[in-house]
Amino acid sequence: MPATVPDPPAGGYHDNADEFRRRGHELVDWVADYLARVEDLPVRPAVAPGWVRAQLPTSAPQAPEPWEAIVADLDRVVVPATTHWQSPRFFGYFPANSSPPSVLADLVSSGLGVQGMLWSTGPACTELETHVCDWLVELLDLPARFRSDGAGGGVIQDSASSATLTAIVAAREAATGGDPTVLARLRAYTSDQAHSSVEKGIRVAGLTAGQLRLVDTDADHAMRPDALAAAVAADVAAGALPFLVVATVGTTSSMAVDPVAAVAGVLDDVDLGDGRRPWLHVDAAMAGSAAVVPELRPLVNDGLARADSWCFDPHKWLFTNFDCDVLYVADRAALIGALSVLPEYLRDEASESGAVIDYRDWHVPLGRRFRSLKLWFVLRRYGAVGLAHHVREHVRLAEGLAARVVAHPALELAVPRSLNLVCLAHVDGDAATQRCIDAVNASGAFVTHTRLAGRLVLRVCIGQTRTVARHVDALWEALAAGAGRG
Ligand code: PLP
Fold first, then answer.
1. Please, where in the chain does CATH 1.20.1340.10 lie?
2. CATH number of 17-40+45-82
3. CA–CA distance, 108 with 131 (Å, rounded to integer)
4. Sorting pLDDT into bands at 50, 70 and 90, what band is 272?
5. How far does the centroid of ligand 1 lie from the alpha carbon of residue 286, in Å?
6. For ligand 1, what atom is nearest to the CA of residue 252?
7. Residues of the chain with CATH 3.40.640.10
């Protein structure tokens, strides 16, 4: 600490409006320049662990730093150590889409700085969210019971993981009615291809991993309804209480789609008492966005009429930057009943009128950002037509890549292409597949792997905002060169 504390500048240390405006314009320019050149950078940075921290002083500054020094460090420290998710050559994991309207809406959200825990702490934040969620029900042709003007409704969460956790807690409360003695008897079901967030959610919800059954999948890696029925029947015979199934529409590894209608049929044979059925949650994290394309709806929306909850991530494939997951429930009372805790200091006239939504009761945190702004900007700026065009185009590019794989003598599809994901392997086995992965990644593009039926698989996920045919062509060249025997 300095021996003496300097006198503060007149007006304190805050940047004034002119300074904010000037730096804001500069930084919007910086982001625009970054996005213009990101395709020329290798997607993965060439830094060793610890490199970033080694560039930074060990202590936070005592005196205010000039803006120039701060901005210069974006180029010196941040960009060289960034994995460029916004590169059109990013084909790994799943996309983390962003777009100009989305980025600018997030800037506005930060500027407004609203904390929308209650309707009264942000009427626009709350009502815009309700409205945009209702818009999406229509836009994606989801069941009307997810709309807020019936018993259901939508809410924006930070991630599909949180949405699934929220659904698990609601399902737990619906099954136990708050009676803790029932907890140990609960059993949940998901496929052996489901995302790890399901098991994590089960554990966070106070159950054990042993209370989650991983149901066998078929040759296409989709949940087998007969295996689900057998697992449920065995548990019921043993005195357990099947309370939840999490079905996946678009698994992470291979974009498999569980047969939601058949899964629902299995659940309809289970009676939790008073005619109540186990909760059906559908995780459509990436694939849900495909419903913006009418001809893809039969694949991704099948069976949803029976779902108690459904979530998808606009932050994956709907051009809305992280974080933005939308969770719908058919019965909001079950969700609110599970999560509502009302201390005196949050009591409020508008809430007590019953005429408003307080989203604090719809997820784990109390506080919430104004996330609906970015969805609102994106939906308006692209229109349904624009969104469908780009999603359809990604699927078309995946189709074209899959056809090239099929025609190549040394490569084969590990599973049929589904939506925007191509899973392939080298016919000579895992070592050769690994060489293909290495060849693509050495080219500056980026793919990741999975294992399907024990086999190493190269995944190509096509969904980045700015990916067009020439990026997939370049990926194919690197892949074919790595595969040999062309
Ligand atoms: N569910 C599925 C099917 C996914 O593919 C993913 C992402 O990998 C998730 C859930 C988790 O998404 P989030 O990062 O939004 O929690």
1. 17-40+45-82
2. 1.20.1340.10
3. 19
4. confident
5. 7
6. 5
7. 114-369
DSSP one-letter string for 412-481: EESS--BTTEEEEEETT-HHHHHHHHHHHHHTT-B-EEEEETTEEEEEEE---TT--HHHHHHHHHHHHH
Q: Which residues of 350-365 are buried (b: 16+ CB within 10 A; e: fewer)?
A: ebeeeebbbbbbbbee
Structure confidence by residue, pLDDT tens digits, 184-197: 999 999 999 999 99
> Which residue spans of the chain are classified as CATH 3.90.1150.10?
384-483
Mutate to test the pocket of ligand 1, among 313, 327, 418 (most ligand atoms within 8 A of CB): 313
Give the pairing of strands 241-248 and 186-191.
parallel
Q: What is the CATH number of domain 114-369?
A: 3.40.640.10
| β 241-248/212-215 pair status | unpaired
Encoded tokens for 218: 């078929």
Q: What region, left, alpha or beta, does residue 257 occupy, with left being phi > 0 and alpha being psi -120 to 50 degrees? A: beta
Residue 458 to residue 193: CA distance in whole angstroms: 17
Would you tell me the crossing angle of helices 100-112 and 17-37 to the nearest 10 degrees? Answer: 160
Distance separating the N- and C-terminal Cα atoms of the chain: 66
Is 457:450 a contact under the CB 8 Å cutoff?
yes
Which CATH superfamily hosts domain 384-483?
Aspartate Aminotransferase, domain 1 (3.90.1150.10)
Ligand 1 touching residue 323 (CB < 6 A): no
With a 6 Å cutoff on the Cβ, whether 248 touches ligand 1 is yes
Q: How far is the CA of 311 from the centre of ligand 1 (A)?
A: 10
SS3 326: strand
The model carries a pTM of 0.95
**Cα distance between residue 220 and residue 267, in whole Å:** 22
Q: Residue 318: is it exposed, middle or buried by C-beta count within 10 angstroms (0-12/13-18/19+)? A: buried
For 444, residues 6+ apart whose C-beta sits below 8 A from its C-beta are 41, 42, 43, 89
Q: How far is the CA of 471 from the centre of ligand 1 (A)?
A: 25
Strand partners, 422: 460
Look-up of token digits 């059993």: 187
Residues β-bridged to residue 312: 326
**Ligand 1 center from residue 215 Cα (angstroms):** 19
Report pLDDT digits (tens) over 108-132.
999 999 999 999 999 999 999 999 9
